Amino acid sequence: MKTSFGPQKILFPLPTGLIVTGTFEKANIVTVAWVSLLTSKPPTLGISVGSKGFSGAEILNNKHFTVNIAHVGIMKEADFCGITSGKDVDKFAATGLTPLASKHIASPIIKECPLNFECLLVSSSKVGATHHFVGKILEVYMDSDKLKDTADYTSFDIEAVNPLIYIGGAREYRKIGEKVGDAYQIGKELKIKK
Ligand SMILES: Cc1cc2nc3c(=O)[nH]c(=O)nc-3n(C[C@H](O)[C@H](O)[C@H](O)COP(=O)(O)O)c2cc1C
After folding, report:
1. Fewest C-beta atoms under 10 Å: which of 43, 122, 155, 177?
2. Is residue 3, in this structure, part of any structural domain at all?
């Protein structure tokens, strides 16, 4: 049996993304859980940002932003950036999070976040009161101490990264659990053997 609810906004798990836009001297941080990879060639990333906040207009003006994935240790700081506005607060100063200069764009990345993306705004559209921004990924950073091999970005230790997971609908934060299988592999067990 299923219980139906009509159209609702619910999805889990989601990353807790901290989006930075502005310049190194004057940047704002906004918490955005509606983040997704969109295409692989070129690599792009999409974010949904409500038009009531400060950040939507800022991203449209600046045409660049960084996406910084929070870990469990900065949960309070990440939540703070989602319940305050850059209109009123300097969120870098208030949280103590550290801006680091990006290579290609003026918006800084956040040092305390283990995974960071520099993005150039390549497309934007509005659905209802929400901006959908598509960012071309210009650079990816990962904390070196989370990598088994610093020449291979896929060699990260996910338990060391300890991403802060957001459960949409329930409005709670969680951490990752145990590995249960290898993707693109385990399904082969159901392939019909000839
Ligand atoms: C866990 C969490 C996830 C959020 N996800 C989003 C999101 O995906 N999109 C969005 O527009 N706002 C999201 N918000 C709300 C914004 O972060 C919030 O409105 C913020 O105060 C806007 O800041 P600004 O005015 O500096 O842009 C989220 C807030 C929290 C706490």
Report:
1. 177
2. no
pLDDT of residue 52: 85
- Three-point CA angle 27, 115, 101, nearest 5°: 35
Q: How confident is the model at residue 95, as a pLDDT? A: 98
- The boundaries of the domain holding residue 70 are 14-190
Residues of the chain with pLDDT under 70: 193-194
Which protein residue has the closest C-alpha to ligand 1 atom 7? 32
Atom of ligand 1 nearest to the CA of 56: 27
- β-strand partners of 140: 117
0.70 surpassed by pTM: yes
- What pLDDT was estimated at residue 193? 64
48 lines ligand 1 (CB under 6 A): yes
The domain that holds 103 is classified in CATH as: 2.30.110.10
Q: State whether the beta carbon of 28 lies less than 6 angstroms from ligand 1.
A: yes
Ligand 1 atom nearest to CA at 82: 17
